[in-house]
Amino acid sequence: MISVAQALDALFALVSPLDVEDVPLREAHGRVLARSVAAQRSQPPFAASAMDGYAVAAAQAAPGARFTVIGESAAGHRFDGTVAAGQAVRIFTGAPLPAGTDRVIIQEDVDRSGDVITLKDNLDTNPYVRPAGNDFAAGSALDAPRLIGPNDIALMASMNIAAVPVTRKPVVAIIATGDELVQPGEAPGPDQIIASNSYGLAALLAQHGAITRMLPIAKDTHESLALAFELARGADLIVTIGGASVGDHDLVGAAASAQGMDRAFYKVAMRPGKPLMAGRIGDAAMIGLPGNPVSAMVCGHIFILPVLRVMLGLPAGPAPRTKAELTQPLTDNGPREHYMRARVDSGQVTVFERQDSALLSVLSQANALAVRAPGDGPRLPCDRIEIIAI
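^ thats the sequence. predicted structure below, dont judge the formating
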């Protein structure tokens, strides 16, 4: 049995960033920028007014100075001439500064009579000019890798980038196993239950950038499992659920070995989630999850999401952890790292009393996993413990 950290290192060694594809800017949100992109122009591309007012030569701007207004500069419609001494141009926010000017007098600081303006005594000294390239210059880079958010989309649009190089989405084949399972909506037999893990995992992985393929439920036979692995061909990652223990009906390990799996590890010192296996089958990585619903979902957060990040070209690392204050005492932890379903509110964490790995109703109420290190001693209210948001 290996530690969670050792299991993560072994998993990271099984995968690498996928290839790159170009997508239209409007489709790039939520994808991972695979190569740095450079601005095609400066922003703003010209010195622009930051306020409505009058463009003048700064050297002539003084209380009581008078200027003749000779034209107008608006956003999208610049004043084409050159402004001479004693002249001004009416200007609006975002408009290019005319040649011969380098300051904007805001309209509140001006008295105007016809085409003549007079600067007031309480003149604002701010030039109200946005220099060319004040935001970014042509050639400025948006560095990769990064998960592209709305702010990045706005920036790339202003950089005049229409096609964005992103990492291809990983294709994940999900295989639920077990004679006891039927699909939601079907009529289960007296000894059967509804398959839930595959649906929860598919939603989790799709939320974090994967394309999921939910394959038919594999029965507890070598023939059915062999067919499931055949259907999984072409996936970048194969995730099996159930059948990873050592009982007479736990056949996934043997079936994977028959497919040529090069096993990296089996069993992790954690709860829930101990019977975890991983390796490679052909061109795909494989992760075999335990069948208990909470175990499968917890392993999805702790192992599969970090693996997806590496496949998407993001840095390798465990699920991010923060700390929160306990609202109740906790007893000693055992020899395995424990991921306890919990609820965090206003910086305080409440660990649910029922931690059975079959209780999806408890998991549905949780928004965090409280992490207990192996052998962690008793905890008191207000102790700060590590949590992982889920």
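The chain has a mean pLDDT of 95.
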